Amino acid sequence: xxxxxxxxxxxxxxxxxxxxxxxxxxxxxxxxxxxxxxxxxxxxxxxxxxxxxxxxxxxxxxxxxxxxxxxxxxxxxxxxxxxxxxxxxxxxxxxxxxxxxxxxxxxxxxxxxxxxxxxxxxxxxxxxxxxxxxxxxxxxxxxxxxxxxxxxxxxxxxxxxxxxxxxxxxxxxxxxxxxxxxxxxxxxxxxxxxxxxxxxx
Length: 201
Fold this sequence. Notes:
The chain has helices at residues 34-40, 56-64, 106-118, 188-199; strands at 2-6, 9-14, 25-28, 49-52, 68-78, 83-89, 92-94, 97-99, 123-138, 141-154, 168-175. With 201 residues, the protein is of the alpha/beta class.
């Protein structure tokens, strides 16, 4: 199954019907036009859609052909007190992440981006938590971003400094549990990543 966020609303590509929000339409592959989906997803009334098909991988590849693909990497970073590293960007809490540069592995990019956005060091990667997908429009081009998310640990005890040139205004360590996900002022895609992490502890 693939779960792609379009304007922070979910688009599922799956081979079976899901027990999900009843506001999300379920359609068969033959009846979904990807161009129409992308246009409809930009409207306020779009709540998401679940696409049922036989070959999930092939249908995802067809969908991805409508986009320029960008790959990124980021981290769910915890310190020695088991506090989570959060950034505030444009008034919304987020996780540190950024685009993978040419020649970088996702792991190297994830560590570099966390260091750059938060002025933190002493980072080690524990494991890959998940991959996420979200679509957005930039300069009239449809972009599909694939992000690799890693569980990281940090020995850093110094002062956190937000990367203001990336519109980050706050960086903080926060004790965080599964119960805090719904009340955090963040994107649905970030809630999904955090939920994935806590469900697999």
